Amino acid sequence: SSPTMEVYNGKLYGTNANDYVVEANENGAKVLTDAPVHFEFFHYDDRLYARTSDSSLVVFEEGEKEPQVAVEEYIGMNAVVFDDYLYADGGMGLIRIDLTAEEPKAEDIVPNVQGITDGQYIYYVDMKDWYLYRCDMDGSNAQLLFEKPVLRASMNFDDEYFYLRF
User: Fold this and answer.
1) Alpha-carbon distance 80 to 119, whole Å?
2) Are the beta carbons of 85 and 97 closer than 8 angstroms?
3) Per-residue pLDDT of the chain (166 residues; tens, 9 = 90+)
4) For residues 97 and 55, what is the distance between their CA atoms, to the nearest angstrom?
5) Can you tell me whether residue 44 is helix, strand or coil?
6) 78 neighbors 88 (Cβ within 8 angstroms)
7) What SS3 state is found at 125?
8) Phi-psi bin for 27: left (phi > 0), alpha (psi -120 to 50), beta?
9) What is the DSSP secondary-structure string of 100-120?
10) Predicted confidence (pLDDT) per residue in 106-130, tens digit
11) Is-contact 132 125, C-beta < 8 A?
């Protein structure tokens, strides 16, 4: 079962035992998708995006029963969207996808890393030495922040601080 939950526009979304996306309400849960999702889903621009078991990223337009394929080959996880770009862990680096492109495609922007973004910078650990770096949202201007191995799973942030564990 997919572990994803999301709050979007004041509504709570999750997945049921069949991995279908549901909207929680006072009467229980309303099923929104007609196919299971694989790993994750998220809303952006009032559209529901979901990763499928065949490694596609599909989009469910409101009122449409069938999803449209947004990206054919999509292996991203932990996706976030800033300024029309989806940023995700692509398995062997960070990828981004322009969701407004006519044919959105995954672009490797920082290879051989694991990281997260706050919408202003990408924070990542290099898979060779696990040192912490920061770069711009397009992958440029990399700066070494800590010359000590950092646990990727410990990296997080709030409105004021960046948290990590050595």
Assistant:
1) 9
2) yes
3) 445 789 999 999 998 888 889 999 888 888 888 778 887 898 888 889 999 888 899 998 877 767 888 998 888 888 889 999 999 988 889 999 999 999 899 999 999 999 999 999 999 999 999 999 999 999 999 999 999 999 878 888 888 888 888 8
4) 15
5) strand
6) yes
7) strand
8) alpha
9) TSSS---EEEEESEEEEE-SS
10) 999 999 999 999 999 999 999 999 9
11) yes
CB 59 within 8 A of CB 79: no
Strand boundaries in the chain, DSSP class E: 6-8, 11-15, 21-25, 28-31, 41-44, 47-51, 57-60, 68-71, 77-82, 85-89, 93-98, 107-111, 113-117, 122-126, 132-135, 143-146, 156-157, 162-163
Q: Which helix (H) or strand (E) holds 4?
A: none
Q: How far is CA 10 from CA 6, 118, 122, 152, in A?
A: 10, 21, 27, 30
- Cβ within 8 Å of residue 38, ≥6 positions away: 2, 19, 50, 51, 52, 53, 55
Tokens, residue 116: 């997260």
Residue type, 130: W
